[in-house]
Amino acid sequence: xGKIDPTSPVPKYFQLREILLDLMEDAELPVDAPIPxxxxxxxxxxxxxxTVRQAVDHLVSEGRLYRVPGxxxxxxxxKIEMPLRLVSFTEDMRARGLEPGARDLDRRTMPANAHLAxxxxxxxxxxxxxxxxxxxxxxxxxxxxxxxxxxxxxxGLLDTPLSDVSLYDVLEKRFxxxxxxxxxxxxxxxxxxxxxxxxxxxxxxxxxxxxRRSFMNGTCVELAVSTYRADRYQLHSALxxxxxxxxxxxx
Length: 251
Ligand code: GLP
Fold this sequence. Notes:
Blueprint: H1 12-25, H2 38-45, H3 49-61, E1 65-68, E2 72-75, E3 80-81, H4 89-95, E4 100-111, H5 114-120, E5 127-137, E6 140-150, H6 167-175, E7 181-190, H7 193-198, E8 206-216, E9 219-229, E10 233-234
Helix pairs in contact: 1-3, 2-3
2-amino-2-deoxy-6-O-phosphono-alpha-D-glucopyranose binds next to α4, β4, β6, α6 and β9.
């Protein structure tokens, strides 16, 4: 097991954080296992209570540990990586071995406001379907998705039950919609009280706000505005090397 190095410039709480993370990675501390109590950690690593608490608080706020009042602190499940590909929720969950689910919250057709008219390049007032669903993985709430689709693209869409069904599947099979391009914006946000309740989060919890535009033949056919749990999702991306740092092979 790792040791705290008192001569290191790395703060002691951070060293303890690293040690605990190593234990989680080595499966000595598996998911849902309790971590040693603050007192044990103080004794084992020769640290003050304040330092131990700082390390644990850090890991709790990072979503790596969770506290159960009166019981202790436990190892959290690893977060899911937000897909940066144009895949459906159903496809993504299945690829991870999780059972995707969708609970119908609301669906309606509304006249396009100026913003939607611009996004879809349709005249204002044209019908747009709005489909609100709670997405689950192995029955656990993960996201609230609000999809907007021009009614002309999928005329009878709202007659189709969309609970526990892939919207992208229905769009493809019934309406011949096959997306060929997409773009997405992801930003940090705070869950409003309705989304917090649906997602089983404390009010004021951090969430990821997503806006996805999916295109077919150069035209936007879906605008999805979604709220994802920030305690269950993280972003990971490859980094490109800037041109000035690229190694140019010698001739
Ligand atoms: C992802 C996207 C949504 C899209 C959904 C469709 O989650 N962020 O924009 O509506 O997939 O998923 P499914 O086909 O499983 O209903």
